[in-house]
Amino acid sequence: MTGETPAAQVDLDRLRRCGFPEVVFSPGKTVTAIADIFRSLLAHGQDCFATRMSAEQARELIEQFSTARHNPTARTFHVPHAGTAPARSTGGRVVVITAGTGDLPIAEEALETARWMGCETDLIVDVGVAGPHRLPAQRHRFADADAIVVAAGMEGALPSVVGGYVSCPVIAVPTSIGYGASFQGVAALLGMLNSCAANVTVVNIDAGFKAGFVAGLIARNIAKVRHGESEA
Amino acid sequence: MTGETPAAQVDLDRLRRCGFPEVVFSPGKTVTAIADIFRSLLAHGQDCFATRMSAEQARELIEQFSTARHNPTARTFHVPHAGTAPARSTGGRVVVITAGTGDLPIAEEALETARWMGCETDLIVDVGVAGPHRLPAQRHRFADADAIVVAAGMEGALPSVVGGYVSCPVIAVPTSIGYGASFQGVAALLGMLNSCAANVTVVNIDAGFKAGFVAGLIARNIAKVRHGESEA
Amino acid sequence: MTGETPAAQVDLDRLRRCGFPEVVFSPGKTVTAIADIFRSLLAHGQDCFATRMSAEQARELIEQFSTARHNPTARTFHVPHAGTAPARSTGGRVVVITAGTGDLPIAEEALETARWMGCETDLIVDVGVAGPHRLPAQRHRFADADAIVVAAGMEGALPSVVGGYVSCPVIAVPTSIGYGASFQGVAALLGMLNSCAANVTVVNIDAGFKAGFVAGLIARNIAKVRHGESEA
Amino acid sequence: MTGETPAAQVDLDRLRRCGFPEVVFSPGKTVTAIADIFRSLLAHGQDCFATRMSAEQARELIEQFSTARHNPTARTFHVPHAGTAPARSTGGRVVVITAGTGDLPIAEEALETARWMGCETDLIVDVGVAGPHRLPAQRHRFADADAIVVAAGMEGALPSVVGGYVSCPVIAVPTSIGYGASFQGVAALLGMLNSCAANVTVVNIDAGFKAGFVAGLIARNIAKVRHGESEA
Amino acid sequence: MTGETPAAQVDLDRLRRCGFPEVVFSPGKTVTAIADIFRSLLAHGQDCFATRMSAEQARELIEQFSTARHNPTARTFHVPHAGTAPARSTGGRVVVITAGTGDLPIAEEALETARWMGCETDLIVDVGVAGPHRLPAQRHRFADADAIVVAAGMEGALPSVVGGYVSCPVIAVPTSIGYGASFQGVAALLGMLNSCAANVTVVNIDAGFKAGFVAGLIARNIAKVRHGESEA
Amino acid sequence: MTGETPAAQVDLDRLRRCGFPEVVFSPGKTVTAIADIFRSLLAHGQDCFATRMSAEQARELIEQFSTARHNPTARTFHVPHAGTAPARSTGGRVVVITAGTGDLPIAEEALETARWMGCETDLIVDVGVAGPHRLPAQRHRFADADAIVVAAGMEGALPSVVGGYVSCPVIAVPTSIGYGASFQGVAALLGMLNSCAANVTVVNIDAGFKAGFVAGLIARNIAKVRHGESEA
Amino acid sequence: MTGETPAAQVDLDRLRRCGFPEVVFSPGKTVTAIADIFRSLLAHGQDCFATRMSAEQARELIEQFSTARHNPTARTFHVPHAGTAPARSTGGRVVVITAGTGDLPIAEEALETARWMGCETDLIVDVGVAGPHRLPAQRHRFADADAIVVAAGMEGALPSVVGGYVSCPVIAVPTSIGYGASFQGVAALLGMLNSCAANVTVVNIDAGFKAGFVAGLIARNIAKVRHGESEA
Amino acid sequence: MTGETPAAQVDLDRLRRCGFPEVVFSPGKTVTAIADIFRSLLAHGQDCFATRMSAEQARELIEQFSTARHNPTARTFHVPHAGTAPARSTGGRVVVITAGTGDLPIAEEALETARWMGCETDLIVDVGVAGPHRLPAQRHRFADADAIVVAAGMEGALPSVVGGYVSCPVIAVPTSIGYGASFQGVAALLGMLNSCAANVTVVNIDAGFKAGFVAGLIARNIAKVRHGESEA
């Protein structure tokens, strides 16, 4: 089932196959094109979620979709479908942790994504490894997570340390924070791929959405069993 | 709690913190050093699992640990602890899929890891994207997985296609199979990091162990809820 | 035979040797320089085609060449020579396929190039691999192509899948669409170079012109035989 | 239609979809596995062709497939199927050109591939650009090709020069010949991707098979029209 | 002997050691700093030459140094010292050749440098390899050069071809002209470093000054012998 | 003052200028050449120290220099000069820490270097970040160091964590331990260069000698003041 | 001890552990966030130092912290705490040397950092290796340093030469000065990592702060002994 | 004029065009192929010179060409043609300088090449920049060179320093000597490309032949004028 708009072929079947509707990646799309996709999704009873939305795009779209929620830091845009938006806090628990304050936009993108998927979320900021007492002090907040997202730039060392404390998967998202030999996030990416902690996987540089999505998927699939839902 | 052997500080507390004992990465370690670590683990009631073990190392160790299971393709070595080895098939369901036959050693490493973690496993080989009918023909075998590992070299396109069919996380492991501009797995790694499927995360090149571990962790955490275990 | 203008040596003999006139790459050239080249070509009875033309360049040139056709998305500029422009749809059939909507400018550049060469063209958009049912649904539109151009960014997986369906060459053009580890098209380029489909060749990142040109050349050389033209 | 052997899923339908049977990439496959695939293909009336075959693999296989033709320089292995092998010289004309003598193994791989596809072939060696009179002296041998393969290492400049003389596509294959900043073929690959000749496309480093296959496909599709075959 | 200005230590002894005065690299220097260096040089009877000068810098400096010659395309700035400027055309013969028109600014920088060194110069533009008849047609203009500079972007193939025609050194300067896999001149740089012509050496990307300087040095050292000057 | 041997110009003045004699880098040197350098140093009353010495080189040299000390793990070779070898433990305190057991050869090279410089040394092994309790448990052993060397491969995260605990400089030495995207130590190198700890500097991959030398220099310069030596 | 501000967790314990308070990296932080951190530090009796501060940030902060010292070239911002700022010239002697005038901003950042740490400092500019007499002429100014910072872009050769003259550590900081194959400082970084001088360590590209900090730490730890302070 | 041997097209016209005969690059060529080329050259009165010749190749060839001179360190092989070998020391003066003893094989290749071209040569070894007094001490030996080759690995800093002392061109050849971040000569290559000395050009990594050839060409072209030969 494909919803053909003038500029795109909306994958309306994705909700059935993959558990969540298609998500719109906003850069390079006109406001008209995004609105067309949103309407196609809504017409088929599906929730709309967009990422990397610019302030300009959001300003115009909010006029057409008055129930939308735009988070300018996360650059996300959510148009809930009246009947179908997943209830918050029935989708498991996702914790997002950042090494520095500069990682916040990516962390927020992950958070908004997990929230859109119905997960309960928590955010722990600025607990990078150079202040070794800061992370353990927050341990009670992430010990019982179903999945953890760790956003870090520069050397990207934090996911390994977090991974050493928990028995759930850690989704590491390298950020482009840094300069010089950080090479726009490459140093962090390589560090995370080479993590000595066995429970750490990695997504693309600055891919807050994908980190939040995988964490949300892990958490939701556990929650479905926990809540007795029939599994897909 | 640390078990100090002459050559290493065994992290005996990892089982409690992370759900599974420390795993031995064999390259560069002497047989004596590995045997010391194994004995330290066994003495504390923990299962022993080692990866990247050479035929030479295995030949010598099997004489000391007669109950061990060595998979020469996967290069894994498992010394089960009498009382504590997790029961097979109570740890959720992990499916491993390969693009080509050359990806088999890495796929086997992932399989053995997930089996060691108590997961039920299945292996689907040689369903790369250039034969587009091969993957859908196997869909019934991976549709109900708790987590899927996809091993692929060269262009690394298979995880995206698998990701488009399922609602569970896909752990993509790039392999060093290929030549020329595959750059020993870099092409596959980059392809997987840029996957257009939202449920795909990535581990290091040839990191069959880590892919299997994360998949096993996801599956086992679901299975624990399913089987009514108290969660960590 | 060389047409020396103040800034360039126009290769007026290329039409005879290579089947088509020299094409102007616009960046870094002044409007005067481009106009000089156009006039030199027209004076020798040759069609004028330019790529990567900016809106500013086009605005000024259109005043001097009133019969020109400018496609601002493709950034192409075509000044047909009265007597010699190849008849549309006698040059074989070229189909252009894109993975996402962001690949459209490059796809349009390929399309305009193939049209300029006299080919019949078709465009299929937004059929990336994460929605696995979308491409097969369009199969009737590309099955009988003489050559296919596939434009894709990010992981660049689509050409392999298209290649698995057809018996004509597939010209893969990586686009710079993506972020982070897409490295401005490098991930897609490497993926395409490592394609497991045997009928896939590759051109430079964002090289819509070259992809369209090679596809057009293949299609036209078949069409010449089909239409009984004497071959070069 | 898939032929499942113990180690592989042979794509028996590829002949119908793509015009030629699946080709075996030999590295990492056991002789038994290759023999199984060959028998599966032969049982379905399909020709067998393998690339990158080692001397050891060939020695054992030749005992089982006595009609096979092994080219040790090209590392190709061909087991013709009695009734179906395409007639030589009805598949169009492919010319292979090399810059130096070190490029010969890759050139031979391309030649053998095109011959297997039924093309008439010619080989021109050692006409690199530093001896500028050598290529034009051979022009009569490549002027009427349906497709040209150019193999070159080091700086990879030859395809551009060849491209400037002809009106057919040029398939450039970078070779890993060179040292230092040739980076095992990367310099040649980049040179070819940036070729200023519009009719040049590129395949992977050392990918003689793919270069020969695409050239053979172009030539054969023209030849089919020329010979009045019904087109696919 | 060092001329200390507030911001720099001018190497006033360089003329004696190296044959020419220190040359000013303008980026990042204030107009005041450049003027101070110029005055220090002039006060010691030395000629002033600066490269990479912006239009803004030049506009202000020309007011202070009214005899200066500014070439805005080359971005060079020359303040001749009354008594010491080398006589034009007594410094040997340098020819600069470009592959395309986009290479002109770098070629001009090389030309101005060689002229400042007193060389007779010639410029041949737009004779890239895809039009194979264009370079031989100009052969009479570069056959008797003492040194040749070849500026080329994209694939950087032209120096090898030029090198094959002459018995003088060819200084290859890769330019950042191109897009995609040209990587801002890296493709051209690698091509030139791997040139199969033995008489080709290479300078940094876009280093028109250095190419012109080395060519000028070679030409001038020959000319000194030719004109009977005592050699350094 | 230079000691010319047939194959080298020994920098006999380095002891005076830099505080320690020239050190021999053994690869690519013949045993005769090394012995010549040693004799030249000894003749001028200087201690001999060599790195990266192969077992073969050491076997032959030990016969000529019977007082030598060879550490085969560190690959160092020390021929003390009777009167001048610095007294152990008067050169300050250097602690070497490793992330894993594979980093031991590089750590040993650093240790031997610091010992040769007269420093008191300590070695702490296998305290990588994934076992977060292991490093703090050893804190008493490194808290009072004058300089610390941290050797780590893979992600290279340990120096940042160590740096967060101490007020002395940390010299980070990336090792080539790891696989896949560790790129022979590049991942660790980039991680260390981007360390968020302000007291971390970096040396080349596997450069145990340089790490040990800089740490030894820092420690010795403090010790000189501490012991009332006149400073250089 | 952590001072939680709305946007950050200030590491108030760092002064005790590492000898100096936490330093603020300004990019990406709001003026409010920086002011909050400053107030938190001041409230705990700690000195405030910030790097990479923009002119805009500084302009607003200077209004709130009237005793602050802003160096616009160095982009540093210092709010001394009345009672605790370390006395100038009791922290040892740090010399900063630059290869060219373009390296000045990074050199100034290192200087200001060392000054903030209480060190006596000196700056020697524009003594790059192509003018070989310039550095030795300044030798009296750097011979007695406790630590030396060398900032250089382009080829980054200066630290090796400086290292050959002294018996103290040299902290090399590569700068992004240069063009083409300098790759924004990568060429200098690699040169410095491969320095043949044993006393050279390296920090990140443009990391003036870190270079100054490590040099300051070395100098201060010597000075503490020299001045009879009790050591940490 | 081309001499076609079974495996190659010998460029017999190169002596006329470029001043010296074609040189054989030995790797990948059979002894028979090399001997064929030598005979073709000798038959046309041309001198034979080959590079990168293995000990095995040389052993077999010396039996066929008894007047040949083989330098095993340089890996060169020279078969002089009775009547035509250029007289030694009439071709100008070339000096080769190395940074370390490991650079000797490349330096020897350059030396042998320049000697083959008839130049007078000198070799200065082991004068790297960390011993700053060693180079100036040899200045009298290189001050009057017509061209200088500098071979250096690791950081590649020596050419800049040499360049600062002389008024002739310096041909820098990076060697693959080093480890870790030397990346097999890439660090030295980048350093040399970014040299701050204006008279430095660069050839490929380990390209001793090309460095020697260009230096020889410069020297010989001066010598021709000096000796009153008619110029080409």
Which ranges of chain A are low-confidence, i.e. pLDDT below 50, for 5 or more consecutive residues?
none
Distance between the termini of chain A: 19 Å
Number of helices of chain A: 9
Structural class of chain A: alpha/beta
Largest interface: A-B, 39 and 39 residues
Average pLDDT rating of chain A = 92
Largest sheet descriptor of chain A: 5 strands, parallel
Shape of chain A: globular
Number of extended strands of chain A? 11
Q: What is the H-and-E element order of chain A?
A: EEHEHEHEEEHEHHEHEHEH
Short structural summary:
The structure is a homooctamer of 232-residue chains. Helix content of chain A is 35%, strand content 19%.
Protein model, in words:
The mean pLDDT of chain A is 92. Chain A has a five-stranded parallel β-sheet with strand order 8-7-9-10-11. Chain A has a four-stranded mixed β-sheet with strand order 3-4-6-5. In chain A, strands 1-2 form a two-stranded antiparallel ribbon. In chain A, strand 5 (69-71) and strand 6 (76-79) form a beta hairpin. Chain A starts with a strand and ends in a 6-residue tail after the last helix. Chain A has helices at residues 14-18, 31-43, 55-64, 104-116, 134-137, 139-142, 158-163, 186-193, 208-226, and strands at residues 2-4, 9-11, 24-25, 48-51, 69-71, 76-79, 93-98, 120-124, 147-152, 170-174, 200-202. Chain A is built from nine helices and eleven strands. Chain A is 35% helix and 19% strand. In chain A, helix 4 packs parallel to helix 9. Chain A has 232 residues and is an alpha/beta fold. At the A-C interface, loops of A face loops of C.
